[in-house]
Amino acid sequence: MTVRSHNVVCVDEQSDAVFRALADATRRSLLDDLYREDGQTLGALEQRFAMSRFGVMKHLKVLEDAGLVVTRRQGREKLHFLNPMPIRLIHDRWVSKYREPWAATLSELKQRLEKTMEKIYEIYIRTTPERLWEAIIDPEIRARYNFSMSAQSDWQPGSHIEMTSPNAPAPLGEGTVLEIDPPKRLVHTMVALWGEDVKAEGESRVTWEIEPIADSCRLTVTHDQLREGANDQLYGGWPMILSGLKTWLESGELLTTPGSLMYSGRATTDS
Description:
Arc Repressor Mutant, subunit A; 11 helices; alpha+beta; Alpha-D-Glucose-1,6-Bisphosphate, Chain A, domain 4; 2 domains
């Protein structure tokens, strides 16, 4: 008899929902449209498709249930945003292991979904809010899933944040704490310092929001205040960082995809 853990069953159910959502051409078109212009209302999306408002709503509901679309209220409007995290998790589970030709297409789609100026990333992690909060602000834990970079601060409003790595001769990033409400919400600025090209982009903002859901937590990371056409190095790594955070909290293991090892100093030794 094969015994499957609750966590594996949940992962399989989520993967099934993602594959079902992506199997429909209309839903893929909705994702493409949100890729071209993120943060759209139902009315704006409805005008682009030859179907009823109810039909568009049904497709969006499937995408939301699969976690591929997340919504945010702005006044009276409900805005729809892409969320690449489910695709990132599928990528980590299968693509990095087998690297079949179909995986290249999935990876390409993942990269396309990540290239937006305001991005919302949503992921469910089986842990407590307190443990998740600790993993975000503790420098030693942070380095385990964040390309070996630690975030050091006393985590008070107005405090300085410095991101460093033992493999880098100088700080890789810095910021300022804007809001903090443990273990629910953290808002801080971010300035990338690992290269002149990203340093020239200036300051952006990152918001971490934790909400307990049964025996898990929903973590939503919003990276905004990015200029139009900003260098994608600033935000393209979030899916891998959050996937690594989930892997470490749920299994105690480190994510070992090539990208996650890129700045850790282990990539060359494992090759």
